[in-house]
Amino acid sequence: MGSLFTGAPAPIFKVRSKHFAQFAFSSLGGRWVVLGFLPGPGPERDAAIAMLEGLPGLFRDDRCLAFGVLPDEASFKAAKDALPMRWFYDAEGSVRRLYDAEGPDGEVAPRWVAIDPSQRVLAWAPLENGRQLFASLAAMGAPQDHAGVPMHAPVLIVPRILEGDLCHRLIAYYEADGGVPSGVMRERNGRTVAELDDFKRRRDATITDPELTRALRDRIGRRLVPEIEKVFQFKATRIERYIVARYDSADGGYFRPHRDNTTGGTVHRKFAVSINLNAEDFEGGDLRFPEFGPQTYRPPTGGAVVFSCSLLHEATPVTRGIRYATLPFLFDEAGEELRAKNLHLLDTSPGKPSTETPAPNEGAQAAG
Prior knowledge:
Elements: E1 14-17, E2 23-24, E3 32-37, H1 43-53, E4 64-70, H2 73-78, E5 85-89, H3 94-98, E6 111-115, E7 121-126, H4 130-139, E8 156-158, H5 164-177, E9 180-181, E10 184-188, E11 191-195, E12 200-201, E13 203-206, H6 210-232, E14 238-240, E15 243-248, E16 254-258, E17 271-276, E18 282-284, E19 287-288, E20 296-297, E21 304-308, E22 313-315, E23 318-326, E24 329-331, H7 333-341, E25 364-365
């Protein structure tokens, strides 16, 4: 099949969907995904789409998603997003080239491509053999069982990073500040910008008290950085942002599946750190890594969960109480060079919401 190799990582892309100008394919981990590279309007396309209609048990949002990749704008505009098929518009053919679905004449080479919940290429088939491909997916069962054994996200949990008194001081700092709505980072016209929408419900208070920032830097540098170096063989020397975040059950505080290093202004990040300040006082609000199954991860009060910024992850909705956490990113000197190089990509206009991106003067030493 040319350069597309079964078992290899599925090529990632951003493409226009019915609801987003740049839909991030990498956000779909944790489910089976079928890409249908469809020809122009006609009987062949109609027959391919009809194959999906008789499989309502397979094509569900929590199990398997199907996306038709359309080459012409007229068809894309006329298409309606609804199970079992949603739609991408591959105007320039970049997606079909990634998936070896382009013929020598530049036209679509029609086929189905199946991708597993870890976002690896599972199989492909010509359009006319779609029923066999879909039947094999249905036989594989639920996404969380696709490996045949339980999967565990490659995360590090380290207790006792912050002592109880410091956790209480950080919560009190948030309550005195009140926090502001926390935005998500997206690329718009080549720049990294902060936007507020329903992808995330959280409020953040930026810590400006020098004593508190020194205390955090000292604890992270002395207690956490050595553990990260031992487990991941990575020496963190820089911290990005000092905040207290609040996820409130009153509005179901959450952060939907995302990665932390996918824009020009965030690509320098290496490891994300989530330190709970009051783990006993709320329900829900845990971390989940969809590519590695449905299980969740929760550090104890004062403890940290550490994971690669490349991992797809989410903060599940808080269903009772309020979750307080501090959420730094860690990187090294090579990352600092990249961060400084990309500062011009950040939209730092006044009035922007609290963001996932550092201010130009951040990047303090992590070691105490």
